[in-house]
Structure formats: C-alpha cells, structure tokens
Design goal:
Pfam families: Abhydrolase_3 (PF07859). It is built from twelve helices and eight strands. By secondary structure, the chain is of the alpha/beta class. It has an eight-stranded mixed beta sheet, sandwiched between helices. The termini are far apart.
C-alpha cells in the first residue's frame, strides 16, 4: 500500500508542468491500435516526405508519460523537422509486463505501416528512447529484424538505456551505488516492482544469486567487467562469490528474456540491427550497459555513434526545458540526439 501511494506520487512529480502552446507544431492525440500516442507535426509545409521519429519515454515502466517528455518531443520535432510520435504505453503495475514492450511494438508497427498518412517516408523512421524507453527501443528493433512485411527501421537512439539484469555489480554499479535518482539498490528494487515480484529478493539479485553458473558461463563473453575500458574501472572490486538460489532464479525468469535484457540477444540478431546512437552518462549505474551494447553492435559490424556525458547522470534528460532547473547535460544529450536524427 505504501509503495502504491508512493508510485502515484512519483508519477505526479515526473509528469511535470504542462508545456505552453507551440505555434510551430500541429499536435494531435490518437490511438495506434488502442495504444495512446501523441503526434507532433511541423506546421511549415515540406516539399518532400519527412523523416519519422518514434519516442518511448523512460520511467522504469511504472512512471513517466507523454506529458513528462512533452518538451523533449517538441524539441526533436522542431529542430530536426521530423514528425514525432510519442508513445503512451500502459504502465506497470496496473498493466503487467510485458504489456509495455508490446504496446511499443504495436505502435511502431502501426506507424511503419501508415507513415505516409502523416507525410512521413516509411524508409526514414528512427526509434528513440531514454532509460527503460531505451530498453523498449532495443527490444522493438530486435523483434522486427526478421519482419519482411513492413519497412525496416532506419536507426535507433538509446539514451542511458537499461539493457541487462544478470549483473548488478559492474564497475558503474559500484561507482554510482549511492547516486541520486537511480542508485544500485533502487535499480534492483524498481526492477522487482516493475515485474510485480517480491522485493525481499533484492539482496539475492544484487549478489547475483539469481543466475545459475551455466548462464553466467554462457553470457560471460558479453557481460563481463573485463570488457569495460580500464579508464572506467578505477576503484572497481570484483564481487565476492555467491551461492546460486534456484528459488530466486525460478521467481525471476523474466530477467533472462531478451525482451527484458536485450544485451542477451544472439549475434544473428545483433548483426541485423540498424545504425545506432548510444548516449551514456558517467554518473549512472547503467553506464556500463551502454558500453557493452556498443561493443556488441561494433563486433557485429553495426555502425555506432557514441556520446559520453562526463557530467551527465541518469534522468538528466527529464529536466530538459525547465529553464534554471535544467542541466547542461540535458541539452547536450538532446542535441546529440537531434544531430544524429538529422543525418537520416
């Protein structure tokens, strides 16, 4: 009950203040196959079809909304001269996982099929998301690699994404263990809350007791502190060995699905992914997941653009557009996103 009230309060805070009317954009609320979306269309006529951008907001799958990322989506539409679709996927715990990913997938497929109705070139559609929105971006792109009945996604943008739930003791987890907004423990707690699991398993998952040795061995080639550049490992201490808990593993099997942990997808999927922009932040427990995803993509000859925000932190993008309450890193990462989008 306490968390129920708390997550409702967090939603109110995260949603922020309403944005003012925008004279440069047509803004319309629609549904794509029952999934709420908001479309931002530049008012200035275009001589040719525009590119399209699909945006999935962050918020651990439990918070955030179209409104919370209103200023971000407006800015992308205005400055990149793109048609932006912001997806209002249904939130947990009211809608159980994987409803959020499936909503994002449904909205994306709908837009790919109907893009021309909105003046968009279906071969110039980019998918973008921050935090868990980056998870959904990665997952949607992976799930669509084998679809031949719809246009291919042209590129993807992952802004400080959550990409795996096997190892919560990477160097960035340790370095930023007590950082504001998303600490090491809070990352695990929100993961369990998102999946409607017993939060008493937090300690076991932090220790890695949910992962059997066979899975550790299988994915060691992809999820391993040794793959993190030395300059980002200062002060890192390998965690102590822990005993495997079959009960915790059985209760948290969703953590090993590629839909939840896209970093676990096979090379046969990675090699077919679109051009990718990854933005990581130094003061973020999820920093190293972005590093590891970048390496997987590069190892599979996917073109990657990487920006690392030395002063950035998790959730920084959410402060964009709030004047004195915004941060330099908020604008920097959004401008990196826009510049990447404009190349397509």
């Amino acid at each position: 009950m306490i968390f129920l009230k708390l997550h409702i309060l967090i939603r109110l805070v995260v949603d922020g203040l309403p944005a003012r009317r925008d004279s440069e954009l047509f803004i319309k609320d629609l549904h794509f196959d029952e999934v709420p979306v908001r479309i931002y269309l530049p008012r200035v006529p275009s001589a040719s079809k525009r590119r399209g951008v699909i945006f999935f907001h962050g918020g651990c799958g439990m918070f955030g909304s179209i409104r919370s990322h209103e200023r971000i989506c407006r800015y992308i539409a205005r400055t990149s001269d793109s048609v932006v679709v912001s997806v209002g996927y249904h939130l947990s715990p009211e809608h159980k996982y994987p409803a959020q990913t499936l909503d994002c997938l449904t909205a994306t497929v709908h837009f790919l099929k109907t893009a021309e109705n909105y003046g968009v070139d279906p071969d110039r559609i980019i998918v973008c998301g921050d935090s868990v929105g980056g998870t959904y971006t990665a997952s949607v792109c992976q799930e669509l690699v084998n679809r031949r009945d719809i246009p291919k996604i042209r590129a993807q943008v992952l802004i400080y994404p959550f990409l795996q739930a096997l190892n919560f003791n990477l160097p960035s987890h340790q370095k930023n263990a007590f950082i504001a907004f998303l600490s090491q423990e809070r990352a695990v707690l929100f993961t369990l809350k998102y999946l409607n699991k017993d939060c008493s398993m937090k300690g076991a998952i932090l220790a890695g007791s949910h992962v059997p040795e066979s899975i550790n061995l299988k994915y060691k080639k992809w999820i391993n502190p040794d793959l993190i550049p030395e300059t980002f490992k200062l002060g890192y201490k390998p965690p102590l060995p822990t005993s495997f808990s079959p009960q915790v593993h059985e209760a948290t099997k969703e953590l090993f699905e590629t839909r939840f942990s896209p970093l676990l997808a096979e090379d046969a999927v990675f090699c077919r992914l679109p051009d990718t922009c990854i933005i990581t932040c130094e003061h973020d427990v999820l920093r190293d997941e972005g590093f590891l995803y970048k390496k997987r993509l590069e190892d599979n000859n996917v073109k990657v653009t990487w920006h690392h925000m030395e002063e950035g932190f998790h959730c920084a993008l959410g402060f964009f557009g709030y004047g004195i309450f915004s941060f330099p890193s908020s604008s920097k990462m959004l401008n990196h996103t826009v510049n990447f989008i404009k190349a397509y």
